[in-house]
């Protein structure tokens, strides 16, 4: 004991310096943070200081009647040490939306007890929403959001740098502000539905802007809502597309035919060229790029025309053929590097044939007017999750909010997708124009398997059949 007291004058300044440094760092972080994060930091401090008391009130403590070693040693002779009340240890972190509390479970205070107390914790911490999830054995993570991430609009500024993982599609954040992404590996088709002005284009803009700096991705767009590439939603991106068609059904048919021909060539050449049966085993590359076909206003090309006059018959024959071709790409294109994204205000069977829609593994829906439209976009199960239904997203505050079925998890998740300003899309497209090359050209220079060896074309070549980009 005497030695400890003797060393105190040396140790104390070190301890004071460490504490002062820690406080200074905290203060610096607070000053530099945005307004939302500052409010969350203050909230995190309140959570830390109030935890012992709150845990007792919320029934998240346990009484340990067996004295610990220290209790036994220090208890006065002939007395029984008083039982100890144990409180789960917590660590608190703050971000823009609220706090993340990691807690250690105790005997009889586990996941279920924390989940049962979630409502109470939300009220005490003044959170709009609190979720409790497992965080490894014996631990839980409590997410409390002060602000509702779903009604907090966000913006995405594309970096212009090639992504490290081409199979990750970052969609946005969920209702607890946790990032949501889907894996595009082995996904042949995605459907995106929602009423006009709900945010579908912004979602696609982000995907294109994030992937555009990579040489291993090529894009073709069929936009049924416009007649030329310089009109409409894809005008800013047109220079990064290797092919574009508008609402002309014959031109669209020619583009789909060309892509199916490429799909066939790829299917027969893949073993010789890549040495695997599935492109995703080696990933997309410049010579074998992931070929993304975006069909916006998909009903324009695929709807079922009914009528006996020659004009309607011609249109019906074209849309039936388009449906057959798109079906080919969705059903057979996965392993050879095709991704078809079908965007439509309505994805009911009359707009997009169910034999295409129902084989797309990823389905997203922005706001919908009716329960039937929600079921068409997300499947019958959405009826069992009324709180997550896109029908509840009709308020303007929910523009940019989509619903998606979670891969490998029951239920649906609501996602706040960020807005991508048109100027950013234009900037990225301009900077990456030189990367737009028809993926068929890599296969064109050789007769085909066996012994196929593709070479990268040096110039951007005009794509036959597709509308020339202005
Ligand atoms: N994620 C978002 N966050 C905030 N606002 C958004 C978001 N996405 C879109 N908006 C706003 O909504 C407007 C319409 O969005 P967008 O063009 O993406 O809708 P859309 O669903 O593609 O409509 P349409 O079916 O008519 O093409 C945008 O101009 C923008 O002002």
From TrEMBL:
ATP binds at residues 194-201. The keyword Nucleotidyltransferase does not apply. InterPro entries: FtsK_dom, P-loop_NTPase. Keywords: ATP-binding, Membrane, Nucleotide-binding, Transmembrane, Transmembrane helix. It comes from the Bacteria. Pfam families: FtsK_SpoIIIE. Residues 177-375 form the FtsK domain. The chain crosses the membrane at residues 12-31. This is FtsK/SpoIIIE domain-containing protein. It comes from Actinacidiphila polyblastidii.
């Amino acid at each position: 004991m005497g030695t400890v007291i003797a060393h105190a004058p040396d140790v104390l300044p070190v301890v004071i310096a460490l504490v002062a440094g820690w406080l200074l760092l905290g203060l610096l972080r607070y000053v530099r943070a945005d307004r939302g994060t500052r409010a969350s930091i203050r909230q995190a401090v309140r959570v830390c200081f109030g935890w012992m008391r709150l845990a007792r009130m919320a029934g998240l403590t346990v009484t340990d009647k067996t004295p610990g070693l220290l209790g036994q040693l220090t208890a006065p002779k002939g007395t029984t040490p008083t039982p100890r009340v144990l409180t789960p240890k917590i660590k608190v972190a703050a971000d823009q939306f609220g706090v993340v509390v990691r807690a250690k479970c105790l005997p009889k205070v586990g996941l279920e007890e924390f989940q049962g107390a979630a409502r109470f914790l939300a009220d005490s911490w003044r959170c709009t929403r609190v979720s409790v999830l497992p965080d490894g054995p014996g631990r839980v993570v409590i997410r409390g959001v002060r602000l509702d991430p779903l009604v907090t609009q966000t913006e995405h500024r594309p970096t212009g740098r090639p992504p490290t993982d081409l199979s990750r599609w970052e969609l946005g954040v969920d209702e607890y502000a946790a990032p949501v992404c889907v894996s595009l590996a082995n996904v042949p088709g995605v459907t995106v539905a929602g009423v006009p002005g709900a945010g579908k284009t912004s979602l696609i803009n982000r995907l294109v802007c994030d992937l555009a700096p990579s040489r291993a991705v090529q894009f073709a767009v069929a936009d049924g809502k416009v007649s030329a590439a310089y009109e409409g939603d894809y005008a800013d991106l047109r220079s990064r597309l290797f092919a574009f068609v508008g609402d002309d059904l014959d031109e669209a048919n020619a583009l789909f035919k060309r892509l199916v021909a490429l799909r066939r060539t790829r299917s027969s050449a893949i073993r010789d060229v890549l040495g695997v049966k599935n492109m995703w085993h080696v990933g997309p590359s410049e010579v074998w790029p992931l070929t993304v076909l975006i069909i916006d206003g998909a009903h324009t090309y695929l709807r079922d025309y009914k009528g006996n006059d020659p004009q309607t018959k011609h249109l019906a024959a074209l849309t039936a053929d388009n449906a057959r071709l798109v079906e080919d790409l969705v059903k057979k294109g996965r392993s050879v590097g095709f991704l078809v994204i079908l965007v439509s205000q309505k994805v009911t069977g009359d707009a997009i044939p169910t034999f295409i829609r129902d084989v797309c593994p990823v389905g997203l829906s922005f706001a919908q007017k009716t329960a039937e439209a929600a079921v068409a976009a997300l499947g019958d199960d959405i009826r069992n999750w009324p709180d997550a239904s896109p029908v509840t997203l009709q308020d303007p505050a929910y523009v940019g909010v989509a619903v998606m079925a979670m891969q490998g998890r029951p239920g649906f998740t609501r996602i706040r997708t960020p807005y991508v300003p048109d100027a950013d899309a234009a900037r990225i497209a301009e900077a990456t124009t030189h990367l737009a090359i028809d993926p068929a050209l890599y296969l064109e220079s050789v007769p085909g398997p066996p012994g196929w060896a593709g070479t990268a074309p040096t110039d951007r070549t005009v794509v036959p059949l597709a509308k020339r980009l202005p």
